[in-house]
Amino acid sequence: MKTKNRLKKGIALGMSMVLLMGAVTGCGSDKGKDKEESDTVTITNVSYDPTRELYEQYNKIFKDYYKEKTGKMIEITQSHGGSGSQARSVVEGNEADVVTLALAHDITLIEEAGMIEKGWLSEFEGNSSPYTSTITFLVRKGNEKGIKDWDDLVKDGVEIITPDPKSSGGACWNFLAAWYYADKKFGGDEAKIKEFMAKLYKNVLVMDSGARGATTTFVENGEGDVLIAWENEALLSVKEHPDDYEMVTPSISIKAEPSVAIVDENADKNGTQEAAKEYLNYLYSDDAQKLAGQNFYRPSNQKILETFSDTFDLSVDMCTIDDFGGWDQAYKDYFQDDAIFDEIYNQ
């Protein structure tokens, strides 16, 4: 009897050891690898305000492409907000696998936090900008104030809506486009340029945290005479409200390059590096480039861009971020605390 009890205890002890070893092995498994081997992959795209409609449509065609190529299902979670705020949210714990933000500097902030590998700007074509835009004006039908160029924005009685450069990437492009115009107008005289910019921002009625919020303030809430806007936002508003609004393209604007990148730290942890790269690469496909054009973004593929010549003014005079020494230098000069924007706005 005692022998049988000892045998039972031995078997039970052996089974316990097997279970324990399995548990230890399970705890040491690579969760990211498990996700890669799963039939469904999930990634998060943290983007900026105006791209909601674009990515809602893009995600659908990408799912079909990814399923056909890999045999796996993919789910994409979207997050939208002011570009600067979105970048900070990733640094603070928003587990983005990819970011598709309004300007390179916002992604550089995530890189400086150690979450994105150096060299990301050249990982994808065109400075990792699969589509571009520019800055235009949205006015109410009839353009009662006669707004045609940047000069008209500094006139007395003109009420401007534009987002805040401290939180919005689009707002930074707005500022630089206006500055470049003033620079040309005044032959580089910085005192006169600053005076011009101070007058412009004195006319700002509402400064929202993001570009889409600014559009809502102007279009839905009926505030202001003119919205300084992404070209895609202005064109979308005209499409949705053709009897109420019209777009004005200034004589000088800026080539705005929204950037994309893999958030390597998160993608490595989540086992989504392969899926994240496919997601961003496919933005350069012909189907995605056409979709960008249909959503009023300028395709980076020049041949496809030319097919949208009836949508975009392809002859507009544009400066680029290189005219400001690149984004790191531009942000330091204009937008960091106590830089030129703060100096002007505090006047």
* Number of continuous helical runs: 16
The structural class is alpha/beta
Order of helices and strands: HHEHEHEHHEEEHHEHEHEEEHHHEHEHH
What separation lies between the terminal Cα atoms?
96 Å
Shape descriptor reads: globular
Unreliable stretches, pLDDT < 50, 5 or more residues? 1-36
Main sheet strand line-up: 7-6-8-5-9
CATH homologous superfamily caption of the largest domain: Periplasmic binding protein-like II
Helix content class: 40-55%
CATH classification class of the largest domain: Alpha Beta
Summary keywords:
globular, disordered N terminus, 2 domains, 15% strand, 4-stranded mixed β-sheet, D-Maltodextrin-Binding Protein, domain 2, 49% helix, 5-stranded mixed β-sheet, alpha/beta, 16 helices, 347 residues
Describe the structure.
With about 350 residues, the protein is α/β, with parallel strands linked by helices. The protein folds into two domains: about 35-130 and about 255-305, Periplasmic binding protein-like II (D-Maltodextrin-Binding Protein, domain 2, 3-Layer(aba) Sandwich); about 135-255 and about 315-345, Periplasmic binding protein-like II (D-Maltodextrin-Binding Protein, domain 2). The protein contains 16 helices and 13 strands. The chain has a five-stranded mixed sheet with strand order 7-6-8-5-9. Strand 1 (about 40-45), helix 3 (about 50-70) and strand 2 (about 75-80) form a beta-alpha-beta unit. The longest helix is centred in the N-terminal third of the chain and has 26 residues, at about 1-25. The radius of gyration is 25 Å and the shape is globular. It starts with a helix and ends with a helix. Residues about 1-35 have low confidence and may be disordered.
